[in-house]
Amino acid sequence: MVNPDRHGGNLAALAARAGCRPEEILDFSASINPVGPPEALRGIISRNVEKLVHYPDSRSSVLVAVLAAVLNIDVEQLVVANGSTEIIHVLPGALGARRAVIPVPAYLDYRLAAERAGLAVRTVLLSEKEQFRLDLEKLDRVLQPGDLVFLARPNNPTGVSFDAPELLELAGARPEVFFAVDESFYEFIGHDSELISRDMAANLLVFRSLTKFYAIPGLRLGFVAAARNTVARIRQRVLPWSVNTLASEVGAAIVGDADYGKASRAFVRERRAELEAAFSDLGLEVFPGRANFLLVRLAGKMPDAADLAERMLSRYRIAIRVCANFDGLDGS
Question: Cα angle at 11 between 295 and 221, to 5 degrees?
């Protein structure tokens, strides 16, 4: 099973360590939209409680139709799932991958999913001196037929993104390699992906977690967009009824809410700039990111990240994410 402590946001464990109630924790350890969920959320859930006496639609047809309209693709190009976690763990088997290639530091579940599927993992170290920017030429040099490449725009935990045309060119030149692009934080940058289209190549797929941007991680909801044949292979591996009725109904009602999206992006952009300036004033090294989080390196005689996290939690009940367990990062 996935260890939730790898990801942050485990309020029960944090509260037990701090000796307080979960609701007393100010949680910066999980990267959820600080605006909170759309105001309509409670009403949507209340109106649909009576539907819980029936099995959910196994394909979440209404949600898929809404997503297809928002993304301007065909419904047969989409699969919804129990968050991006289910998608990540389904991909190695569904695509028949021989090896996983992961630029690091990166989200921990890419490696975990690959290893559980019995795949060897080749990591490509992103340069801290280059502020962790993705070097597609360097990546191209290590690729082999049958590889499954995990990428993210923007990347977790660095917050760094990359331009779509460069990846589309690489994917076109490497049809024997699958490129899986995690856009779970992309809506904090903008809405139009540039990678998702009606004519997606068979070796390119894009997946998103809807729970990050819409602040509903407790509902578990995500989707993957790809070419029809690629989607058909993925759909065969997704568990039946993995998306519950409430998650599906909420998703269909809030996806594409332009006002919520605009307000969220503006709020996060302003708060990120304020936080970046404040951290810099404290003498911290802040890596410029475009998501709703910032990667920060402690400097000089400051404590290491684990020590700081314990002090923040015990003294102030503030939870932060220690990034020492990411490949390519250390205890600072």
Answer: 75
SS3 annotation, the chain: CCCHHHCCCCHHHHHHHHCCCHHHCEECCCCCCCCCCCCCHHHHHHHHHHHHHCCCCCCCHHHHHHHHHHHCCCHHHEEEECHHHHHHHHHHHHHCCCEEEEEECCCHHHHHHHHHCCCEEEEEECCCCCCCCCCHHHHHCCCCCCEEEEEECCCCCCCCCCCHHHHHHHHHHCCCCEEEEECCCHHHCCCCCCCCCCCCCCCEEEEEEHHHHCCCCCCCCEEEEECHHHHHHHHCCCCCCCCCHHHHHHHHHHCCCHHHHHHHHHHHHHHHHHHHHHHHHCCCEEECCCCCCCEEECCCCCCCHHHHHHHHHHHHCEECCCCCCCCCCCCC
- Which residues does 188 contact at the CB level (< 8 Å), separation at least 6? 33, 154, 213, 264, 265, 268, 290, 291, 292
CB 38 within 8 A of CB 214: yes
Are the CB atoms for 162 and 133 separated by under 8 Å? Answer: yes
pLDDT in tens, 106-147: 999 999 999 999 999 999 999 999 999 999 999 999 999 999
* Amino acid (1-letter code) at residue 64: V
- Which amino acid does the sequence have at 133? R
Q: What are 272-284's pLDDT values in tens digits?
A: 999 999 999 999 9
Side chain identity, residue 131: Q
